Amino acid sequence: MGLPNDGAGREGALAAWVALARRRWVAGGLVAGLVLALAAAVVFLSRPVYRAEARLRLGAPPPMGGATPAAGFFGLLRLGGDPFANDLELFSSRTLVERVVDDVSLNARLDAPRGWTRDSLFVRFGAGRATEEASFALEWLEDGRVRVRRTAPEDSLIATITPGTTVSFGDVTLAPRAWRPGMPRKVRITTLPFAEAVRRIGPRLVVERLRREANVVGLSFDHIDRAIARAAVASMIHRFIELRTAIELRESGETVDSVRVVADHTRRALDRAESALEAWQRETRLVAPEPQSEVFVERYGETLTALERARQELEAVDSALERASQITTSGSTWSTLLAQPDFLANETMGALVERLVQLEAERQALAQRRTDANRELRALVDQIAYLDGRLRSLLLNYRITLAAQVEELEAQVAEMDTVLARMPARAIELARRQRNVRILSEVLVMTEQRLHEEELRQALTFSNVQVIDPPALRYKPVWPRKKLGLAVGLLLAGVFGTIGMVVAERADRSVWRAAEVRGVFGAPVLAAVMVDRDGAPHFSPDEVRTVLRRAAPEGGGLARLAVVAADRAAPAPEVARALVRAAEAEAAERPGAEALAPPVIRAYPPVDSFAAAAMADDGPVVVVVAARRTRRDDLFRAAALLREAGAAVAGAILVCTRQGDMVGVWA
Known about the structure:
alpha+beta, five-stranded antiparallel sheet, 19 helices, 58% helix, rod-shaped
């Protein structure tokens, strides 16, 4: 016998599932109906959930300023992380969630009939951060007032107010509206601790990047109240911009403040350095070392030259006076002095000397003709003496002036020598002071530049978040989605119905397969017969012949057969009578050798220890099993008793009450 092909295997599996459905369709139908009813209840009875959405474009923050090229290089390395990723982390921060919960009062929940929201029931509704886990009931009384009670954790009356009056309880502040037709008479408010509300609301504030290539994020929040859903998204946008701006401002402000402090300190240091440089230059009169050095050296040379010339002239005057003192005549004396270049350049002295020489010549000419007592001669002598005295006075004054000039020039040279000796040190000190001023000036310029960059960055912080789509609700609720919900319900009903049939099949402890009976008794199932409404089984001729051949002894003679019921549900007497009738009919239809002699058939009640011992001598035993009614435990008990009594089990007969059971007997 060959192995079955794939087609036969698939047909067998399909037939097994069909048989399973025929047997367990009631259990599967009940489970599927229950699941479908539950899905329909969830779809049609649940409150609609609305989704508010918005879109933001997050621009890159202003670049970090830098006073050196290295700062710009490190800015390119993004040592502070990806700006867009940092902004996304802000959305999931606890600070942002806390502010949203605080703005929309999400730590207080309203339990009201379907279609009634906060805005329709209250003029004002808010909750602080000091809420606890508690429940409150509001009831609109017949007289128009509103009664507020605390129901959990303990029951207590809070207040009875008129509509529109603000009342506070459990850190919840509200003002109820006046009752109107259709409005519920009683609602409940449940509060949570603020931290617990933040923990629950955080995952519901959905933020996702729509595309990797775009710095655009989508914000969404689901809630049964349209106003709350929209207000939550609006609060997310507002609080995010506020938090992001505060962080940027704090960062820029700290940088601006620190740079401004450095700039002020540098400015003060520069002012002190410039003032000190100015005072030092005023004191030393050293402004431009190189030009001043050149001029000073030139002046120094000129002063030395003038000093040397004055000294030479003084020596010349002294020498001339010494030579003139050896001459007796005044004219010759002054003629000798007049030969000096300085005296030749002096017109007054030249005129006096020339007049003196003329008078001397006249005196000598007159002295040869006159005596010393001559009046004219004496007048010439007096004139000569006057001119001589005047010239001597001028010469002495000139020498005194020349000596004073020499002394002054010597003092100037000495002073200039001192200044010249100190000039290198002063030049170095001037260069040092100018270098300090230049360094402080450069530092001040760089800090001022960085300060302006940070102020510009601080100004640009406000304009890099753009609201592309403002908060808005979807045109229909996101839940329940009736078509999809029913489709999923049908799918789940089919799956759970199938699982229910399999579980019912596995949980059924009754016997209905031939293989199970054969495994217990170690004997084949001789026949599977149907019973009618009267409980009478109907055997086919082939089944009767199979049973009779099992009952016939090998040596011939009268056949004996014992028919025993496996339990009280098995109709052993009816099977025995049916076998006798079928055997008689078989013998009548087939006379001769081919016909089997009808055996002596005895029927026994359900197997017990006495019946097993009694039937041990009645020949082969045929066990009657009621499909779907005989339990496995009873079947094992009957097999054990028969083996203990030593009865020879020839086979078993399965009795079925439904046509569907006949299909699964041989599966």
